[in-house]
Amino acid sequence: MIPVDRACADLRVTACPTAGSACARSDVLMARLRPGGLFELLSPEAWARVLGYPPEELSAKYLRELMPLEKRAAGAIVAELLDPQADAPLEVPLRCKDGQRKYFRFHRRSDERAQAIFLVADELE
């Protein structure tokens, strides 16, 4: 069982420390949910390009702050993302720096050995 607090109301966005990795340079939106409430961006440049935030500004936010939803609705999405048993894609709205709302489909897989839930997101048209 991955020790992620599913009751956690928020996830802190942070860039992955291996900035020189192939993931970091990818155009694919990838992230990893880590114990302690971290939403780690594995491809920070791709997230910054799609959402319009500079990487350092994006890393100073909580995932809930990027959702154009009321706190309770955003918390419900975060709780569902943190469920290691759930593997169905999840639609998540995110707010861009310019205020535009974009919708993403998050695909997730839990990895016991890595103690993380890995996410790949694609933008919905």
Q: How would you describe the overall organization of this protein?
A:
- By secondary structure, the protein is of the alpha+beta class.
- It has a single domain, classed as PAS domain (Beta-Lactamase).
- Helices cover 18% and strands 32% of the residues.
- The protein has helices at 44-51, 55-58, 71-81, and strands at 12-15, 29-34, 38-41, 90-95, 101-111, 116-124.
- It has a 6-stranded mixed beta sheet.
- The longest helix has 11 residues, at 71-81.
- It is globular.
Helix and strand layout, with pairings?
Blueprint: E1 12-15, E2 29-34, E3 38-41, H1 44-51, H2 55-58, H3 71-81, E4 90-95, E5 101-111, E6 116-124
Parallel strand pairs: 1-3
Antiparallel strand pairs: 2-3, 2-6, 4-5, 5-6
